[in-house]
Design brief:
138 residues, alpha+beta, Aminopeptidase, globular
Length: 138
């Protein structure tokens, strides 16, 4: 395994990426096109690749001033525990000096704690209408 890292969307097979996410039980229901659009419309993206195949990804939304939010951090199950997610997170953090970075996780608390993130007391959310019922997913 020879993993490389970059911040370009060039050459990504989004159908394969979606299939890999689904196989890893990390699929949130977006279509392959909606997954691509999510990354295209993010301010910062980071990818880990083994040859032509994406084996890790993460993206960040940012106002460019003081606040950023990390989403869709994933490493292919066969590549975990090798520092890939940590590298992706550092790539994103390096893109937003001076900004507060937030994220939400169900099961990777130890990873984010090891990178210096601290638990916040509350996070509130609302889905407008029905989850993923929008033009991007049609």
């Amino acid at each position: 395994m020879s993993v490389t890292f970059d911040s370009t969307l060039d050459g990504i097979d989004w159908a394969q990426a979606k299939a890999d996410l689904a196989a890893d039980d990390f699929d949130n229901g977006r279509t392959a096109d909606a997954l691509r659009l999510s990354f295209e419309q993010s301010q910062h993206v980071a990818f880990a690749r083994d040859g032509d195949r994406v084996v890790g990804m993460a993206r960040m939304l940012s106002d460019g001033v003081c606040n950023a939010y990390v989403v869709d951090v994933w490493t292919h199950s066969a590549y975990r525990r090798q520092g890939i997610a940590a590298t992706l997170m550092r790539m994103l953090a390096d893109a937003v000096p001076g900004q507060h970075i937030g994220l939400q996780t169900d099961d990777a608390q130890a990873l984010y704690r090891s990178l210096g993130y601290r638990e916040q007391p509350e996070f509130w959310s609302l889905v407008v209408g029905r989850w993923l019922d929008n033009e991007a997913n049609r």
